[in-house]
Amino acid sequence: MPTSPPAASSARPSFPPAHLGDEFTPRTTYLNTASHGLLPARTTAALAAAVAEMAEGRADLAVYGERAGEARAAYAGVVGIPAERVALGSSVAVHVALVAHALPSGAEVLAVDGDFASLVTPFAVRRDLKLRSVPLEELAGAVRPGTALVAVSAAQSADGRVADLAAVGAAARAHGARLLVDTTQSTGWLPLEPDVADYTVCGAYKWLLCPRGVSFLTVPGDGGGLEPLHAGWVAGEDLWNSTYGPVTELARSARRFDESPPHLPYLGAAASLGLVAGLGVEAIGRHNRALAARFRAGVAGLGRPAVPADSPIVAVPGLGAATGALAREGIRVADRAGHLRAAFHLYNTDADVDRLLEALAAHVR
Predict the structure, then answer these.
(1) Could you give the angle at which helices 263-279 and 41-56 cross, rounded to 10 degrees?
(2) Interval 277-311: pLDDT, tens
(3) CATH number of the domain residue 160 falls in
């Protein structure tokens, strides 16, 4: 197996802290966070307690609602914006559909070739919109007069490439376009400027370590022209007096765009987000990128260079078919667009990287 560069491990500060050994107990070499993050022990404990309460008739729905509010506040703290600008949901596609609905007929939406389906499909199914896509590297230069919205993932799901959001945002503003950024593959390791986009959407079950069924939408202070299409009682300003008949006053915050939060996922989210916030996104990002750099150097030494990117998502072209054999060896990675995709997060170590490299060496001889 090729020797990895020593700087990848010796130059970074001590991370993760020792107590994380009590939070994560994978039985595999788990390098697939870009598909789903591991649930921390504190999260599984919260879920187990709630399941018991629901089974035994002890559920307290008011408390569960408070925990959803705590998840909102924790997410707002992680991304650095006021909680009043955060809406709760269960899926990125539903959030994006609100943005798609707000566009006038004939509006042009600019997207990236091969970006994640949940980000682009809500625009595609509106046949009266003009959906145009370009390579990621050409996105900023492709914004033009008449572009109403630019939609892009901060980090590409298939191969980890990171968008130049500063350049894209500047181009959008110069042409009077709004910017929608999907941060599902970046929030939790990549700090972003709080106001980099008009709207952000984030599925929290990957790098934020939440159960699937938790997603967040951020909007400008004025709501960004969105309509609360699926408003129910949870969207009322006076929550417990909005349970019967049409809601008379919608929330004055982004809560007007809330879906009714599913109890179990959001009970878990409150716990998981507290862990991520406590560790710090910048520290997590440094750790994750160092592991990715070690892996990139290793696969280059095997003669199989990865797609160039500065992210913990590493895609190695042509090796996607090896994922099945690796799974049988207890190494969990993904096959995406023909690439072997490895994703390194806070619970991974140099030893995980080296085990994957050693296994791959046998597959590329």
Answers:
(1) 160
(2) 999 999 999 999 999 999 999 999 999 999 999 99
(3) 3.40.640.10
